[in-house]
Specification:
The chain is an alpha/beta fold. The protein folds into 2 domains: 126 residues, Oxidized Rhodanese, domain 1, CATH 3.40.250.10; 209 residues, Rossmann fold, CATH 3.40.50. The strands form 3 sheets. The chain has a 5-stranded parallel beta sheet with strand order 1-5-4-2-3. The termini are far apart.
């Protein structure tokens, strides 16, 4: 007799052949269990159709139509995805609340003979776990914050530290944003940020990979990175942390920013549209001055001026308010490999294991 599906409320304590999210693609895109694949039993249009019939006609008709669509989609998954799975295949299956969608998939897979585990309570169980973990786990680490004016290469230096084995929490990478007005990531076109929920899933996954006995390095971010908010527990711990400030000559900062934000040089109209958001603070006279330098290709002049006029004063106020515990100030002439390596030799040799 085929095995019946079993249930778990703690899927993170066991290993599965695959984690299968049977929700619609839009639900999956908003957030999902780390490592999960999306095999929807109803796509977005089908789910909307069934929901409309349920509300406007009657639940019985909706269930009939829904069952036909679910059967069709599971059949396609059996042919396209499950055909080569071995007898010892053991998936975890979940939907929104652990209801009909995941049970439909699990019943079919169990009838074939596979050992299937269902997530009791579905995605909502996982989401409650993430919220609780992000309330508690960030408090257990000791943090080292890297500060420095815009263009000081903080993110670049931290990523080089990571290559040396330091524990680095790269919040800008997780949020897919550089944390400023012009910080939107660019890969041929604007690269969207993850949803708040998926960011939190990624953040928890990163924190759970860290050693509690080693410090965690993090950049002096704001509470909000683009459209993403940091968990309050992490933000409070960051503000209490000791800081290392990187100082770099402004000419070196300008050179580094020209390389880092080359996409805005290539798309000046997008740059000017973003700068227009500063009109209420500085007025049209200053914006027109920046626009003239952009149109004339005077990039060094524009970057140096916007640093001194906007970014540096804003950053200094933020640092004084949130990251005033600066224990070390480290000056380097530029961000060439030799300068960064010398900096890292010093920083890494002075990073201590937590007793």
């Amino acid at each position: 007799m085929p095995p019946l599906p079993t249930y778990t409320q703690q899927p993170w304590i066991e290993t599965y052949s695959e984690i299968i999210d049977v929700r619609s693609p839009s639900e999956f895109a908003e957030d999902h269990l780390p490592g999960a694949i999306n095999l929807p039993v109803l796509d977005d249009a089908e789910r909307a159709e069934v929901g409309t019939i349920y509300e406007q006609v009657n639940p019985f008709n909706a269930r009939k139509i829904g069952a036909a669509l679910v059967a069709k989609n599971i059949s396609q998954h059996l042919v396209q995805h499950f055909a080569d799975k071995e007898k010892n295949y053991h998936p975890l299956v979940y939907c929104w609340r652990g209801g009909q969608r995941s049970n439909s998939m699990a019943s079919v897979l169990s009838q074939i003979g596979w050992r299937v585990t269902l997530l009791a309570g579905g995605y909502k169980t996982y989401r409650a776990y993430v919220r609780q973990q992000l309330e508690d786990l960030p408090k257990k680490f000791t943090y080292q914050v890297m500060c420095g004016l815009t263009g000081s290469g903080k993110t670049y230096i931290l990523r080089q530290m990571c290559k040396r084995g330091a524990q680095v929490l790269d919040l800008e990478s997780l949020a897919n944003h550089r944390g400023s007005l012009l910080g939107e990531e660019w890969q041929g076109k604007a690269s969207p940020q993850p949803s708040q929920k998926y960011f939190e899933s990624l953040l928890l996954q990163q924190l759970q990979s860290f050693n509690l006995e080693q410090p965690v390095w993090v950049e002096s971010e704001s509470l909000k990175i683009g459209s993403i908010y940091l968990p309050q527990s992490l933000w409070e711990k960051m503000k209490q942390a000791s800081c290392v400030e990187i100082q770099l000559p402004i000419t070196a900062r300008v050179e580094f920013l020209l390389q880092t934000y080359s996409h805005l040089v290539n798309y000046p109209d997008i740059l000017k549209a973003k700068l227009e958001k500063l009109k209420f603070r500085y007025g049209w006279q200053k914006l027109n001055e920046w626009y003239q330098w952009i149109d004339a290709g005077k990039w060094e002049l524009f970057i140096e001026d916007i640093l001194q006029f906007h970014y540096d004063p804003t950053y200094r106020k933020s640092i004084q308010r949130h990251f005033s515990n600066v224990e070390r100030v480290l000056s380097i002439p530029d961000l060439c490999d030799r300068s960064v390596d010398q900096l890292l030799d010093y920083v890494c040799s002075n990073t201590y294991t937590i007793a």
